[in-house]
Structures are given as structure tokens and as C-alpha cells.
Amino acid sequence: MSELITIWTMDWVPEGPRGFVRDLRLRWACEEAGLAYCVRTVPFNERGPGHLARQPFAQVPFMDDGELELFESGACLLHLAEKSDVLMPCDAKDRADTLQWFIAALNSIEMVSVPWWFLEVTGAKDNGLTGWMESRLEHMERVLGEREWLAAGRFTVADLLMADALRVGKVRSFGDRPATESYVTRVTERPAFRKAQADQIAHFEAADAAGSQAR
Amino acid sequence: MSELITIWTMDWVPEGPRGFVRDLRLRWACEEAGLAYCVRTVPFNERGPGHLARQPFAQVPFMDDGELELFESGACLLHLAEKSDVLMPCDAKDRADTLQWFIAALNSIEMVSVPWWFLEVTGAKDNGLTGWMESRLEHMERVLGEREWLAAGRFTVADLLMADALRVGKVRSFGDRPATESYVTRVTERPAFRKAQADQIAHFEAADAAGSQAR
Question: Which ranges of chain B would DSSP assign to H, the alpha helix?
């Protein structure tokens, strides 16, 4: 019954995104919940019809759980969360609380922070999303100044996703936000995160060592 | 037992966003699923601590379901979807399929289309998200050329959310994408959508007539 869960990621990525590729979210969730999983790969350099059939935007991760197939790290996380109270509380109020903050990470924070980051790294002269970014992160700073965890009074899959969105280098260093910084530190000090991150970095370093990519 | 579900929206909005404010998603889901609901309002012009306590980014909608409270239209939709097979299939494979496309609407389409739209309407000289937008919409066009509904071979909450993201004026008219256009038409011709949209427009028009806003 072990290793029914397969997390698919790239066989190799450049150094920049190592430690941030989104298969990390799924590894982390499995580590938190004590779920057995294995990791398999698709080529970074060739994203053909086989890849598109599994991930229609040519991204990773995607996941197998027995006969079930899923893409989108958010969907995979919600699916995994149903397997463990550690990630998703059973109590109806705590569950609603977790769900709303989980979606907020995707659709209120990342919907601004990822495109803002994209404009920064592609060298936009005047980043037109900066004011919006500022406003969203200030709201988060207020919220995180009032509580230790986002939902249900303890760590949930909502913290996993929100901290992963907020820990991105340029986002993390955007302005002086002590409550957010302390939150990101608290969440990323969890052993499950550290193992997932170390495993992902080791995975891509092993690909360097094997020299299996034409680059 | 009727009207346990309360959808919260603004008391008034300017003409531009009418028919697009996200309470529409919740009205639409309730109409599809045959769930009784009522609509209540918070002031558009004053978004104080009471509003922030329910929606930490000062937005709408948010929702009550008996004792449960939720914000984020995506979270409210997933919560409502659990009440009806019309929105979320029971079969495990169909459910995974619906979930992945539901999250794709939020985190692969809206994460690009909403900031792209924001830069357009705020008059960015050179919209640095256009190439990314093009790529995401082309992938969607390929997918929608191969199927009538996104998941489970029939309408689900994934179509509700994806069509709502794709029907936004500037997004809908971005390039020539016949399969997407036909999909948006097909989904928005549903009686539940038309009722939800008409009800929302009537709600804001009534506020005009009542002249209850200082503007």
C-alpha cells in the first residue's frame, strides 16, 4: 500500500527556482501528514503532448493517487488534505476557516504577488502592480499581527500554502512587515518543510551530477 | 429552513462592475443547485473594522451558512458545491477532475488574467503580462477545442468559475479564440447564470433608485 501517491516534477531546473518549484508543496503536505509518496519526473527541456495531457499549461507538479490523477498544486493539496486532520480539520467551523484562508493564499495573495514578481524579474520599468501588492501585504501583516496561525488556531494546509506564497525572496523582502516575517519563519522551521525543501534541492542537484540534461 | 445561506455583497457599485461583482458566482451556484439564499449588504463607501473582520482584504462577497462564515468566492463555491452533485460530482475521478479545473480557473487563468486586466484598465503603457496571458489563453483554447465541458463530461462548478473568469470583457475579446467564445456562450446561456446576473444588476439599480448612497 506504500507509494500509491506519485508526485511528478521536472527532471531538472536551473538553480534559481530550486527550493521553490511547487512539487515542494506536495512533498511538504505528505511529510506533514505522514503519507508515503514517490517522486517521478518529466523532461524540463521537452514539454510534449504527454506532459500537456497531464498538465495543460505545461507546468509541474501533477500527481497520481492510485487511479486518480490531478494537476494544480492547489487541487493536489486539497485532495491530500482530506487524508489527514493535520492538514484539514474535521470540525465544520475550522474546516471553513481553513478553506477560506487556503483560497485566499491562491486568489488574494498569489494572484497579485506572482504577477508582481514576474514583472520584477522580467525587468518592467514601472511595476504597475506595486500599489496593489502593498495593499494586500499590509492586510496580511495586520492579520498575522493578531494570530499565530491563519485558521483553526493551529497549523493547517492554509498555512502551508500561504507561507509558501509569502516566503518567495522578493515578496518576503517587500517592505518591513515583522508579523509576516515571524510567521514565515515559524512555518518554514517545521521539520516537514525543511525535509521537503532539502529533498527537492537534492533531487535537482543529483540531476546536475548525472549530467543527464543537454544544456 | 429556508434562507440559511446569506450572500453578502456591496450596497452599491458603479455601473462598470455591475454584472461582474463576485457575489454573482455565489448566486449562480445557489441557482444551479436549487439552494435557498438571501442577499445582504455592506457599504461600498465605508469599509470599516466590521467589514474587515468578515473579509480581510475589504472585498466582497462573503457568506453565512447557518453558523458557518466564509470569505473568498472560491472557498464559498467549494463549500456550496459539497451540497449538490450538480456542482460537484460524487464519483472520485470526476471529483478530482472538477477540483483540478476549478483551481486552474483561480490559479492558472485568473492569476494572469486579473492582473493583466488591472494593468490594462489602469493604463499601463506596456502591459508586461501580455505574453503570459496569450500563452495561458492559447492553452485554454486548445483544451476547449477538444471538449464541451471542462470536467466529468458535463457542467460542474469548474465551468461556473472558469467561464466567469473568461467572460470578462477585455479577456473575452483578447485575440481570436473560437472554442473559448463558444464555451463562454454555452455556459453563460444557462438559466441559472442569466437569473443570477439579472438579479445582481437589479440589486445595484435599485440602490441607484433609492439614492441611498452619498455620491
Answer: 23-33, 49-54, 73-81, 92-104, 110-121, 130-145, 157-166, 169-172, 178-188, 191-210
Residue type, B10: M
Indicate the residue of A69, A100, A140 with minimum beta-carbon distance to B96.
A69
Check if the beta carbon of residue A21 is closer than 8 Å to that of residue A53: no
Amino acid at A187: V
The number of helices, as runs of H, and strands, as runs of E, in chain B is: 10, 4
Q: Taken in order B157, A65, A37, B143, is the CA torsion positive or negative? A: negative
Question: Is ipTM > 0.90 here?
Answer: yes
Cell of A83: 487524508
State the average pLDDT over residues B102-106: 98
Low pLDDT (below 70) residues in chain A: 1-3, 212-215
Give the pLDDT confidence score for residue A1 in this predicted structure.
43
- Give one word for A49, left, alpha or beta, with left for phi > 0 and alpha for psi -120 to 50: alpha
C-alpha cell at A62: 501533477
SS3 B110: helix
CA distance B192 to B183: 16
Tell me whether residue A210 is exposed, middle or buried, using C-beta atoms within 10 angstroms of its C-beta: 0 to 12, 13 to 18, 19 or more.
Answer: exposed
pLDDT digits over A129-153, tens only? 999 999 999 999 999 999 999 999 9
The answer to whether residues A63 and A70 touch, using CB atoms and an 8 Å cutoff, is yes
Residues linked to residue B29 through DSSP beta bridges, in sequence order: none
Contact (CB<8Å) A57/B122: no
Q: Which pLDDT value is given to residue B188?
A: 98
- Nearest CA distance, B198 vs chain A (angstrom): 26
Q: What is the pLDDT of residue B123?
A: 85
Mind listing the pLDDT tens digit for each residue in B128-164?
999 999 999 999 999 999 999 999 999 999 999 999 9
Query: B14 burial class (0-12, 13-18, 19+ CB within 10 angstroms)?
Result: exposed
Contacts of A212 (CB under 8 A, 6+ apart): A11, A12
pLDDT of amino acid A104? 98
Cβ(A9)–Cβ(A60) below 8 Å: yes
CA distance A152 to A90: 10
Nearest by CB to A70, which of B67, B96, B118?
B96
Name residues 84-143 of chain A within 8 A of B (Cβ): 92-93, 96, 99-100, 102-104, 106-108, 110-112, 114-116, 118-119, 122, 124, 126, 128-129, 132, 136, 139-140, 142-143
